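Extended Data, panel c. Modelled sequence:
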Amino acid sequence: MSASNRYSKQDIVWSCCLQNVDSTPESGSVFNEQFRDLEYNGELNQATAHGAKFALLLAMLEQNSLLRPTIAKDEDRAEDKYQNDIAALSFYRSAPLAADQQYWSKVTLTENFIQSGELENAKLWLTMHPEPLSLYNDALHIPEAILENCALHVRERLKQAQQKQFEQDATGLYDILQDVAPLHVAA
C-alpha cells in the first residue's frame, strides 16, 4: 500500500508545510520570529510551484502586515555605519555651536601664540580647540551692526516679525479668570 493511498493529498501538504513552521523553540532560548516567517525563509517562494501548498501557506500568513517581522533596510544600516566610521576618524573635538565660558578663558592663549609669532602653535591649538561657530546659538539673533546696514524695508520687516512674537504669560489667564469670576457670582 503506497503512501498516497493511506494519506490524502491534503494531509501530505499539511505535513510538508508544518514541519518547519510548527517547530517549537528549545527550552531557555528565545525563538526568532523572523526565521519562522514564511516570506523570509523562502518557504512561500518554493511553494509557488505547488498550487495547494502555496494557497495554504498564503492563507497562513499574518493578515496584518504591521505584525509581521521586518528586516531593517540596508540604507539605514549603511547610514549608521557611515556615521560611525566618520566619528571614528575624528580625533579632535568638533566646533561648538556657541561661545561659552570655557572658550573665553582659552582665547587669551590663542592670542598669545599669535602675538608672539608662533603661528604653527596657534594653528595646532585651534585645531585641538576649535573656535565656536557663533557667539550665540540662536538663528534669529542678528547683531545691531548688521541691522543698521540693512535696507529700510528689511529693518521694518524684522521689526514687524519681532512685534508678532509675544511672550506667553501663564498667570495672565488666571488673572482674567479671577476678574470674570465675581461677575458670575453676583448674577
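The CA atoms of residues 104 and 131 lie 10 Å apart. This feature is highlighted in the accompanying rendering.
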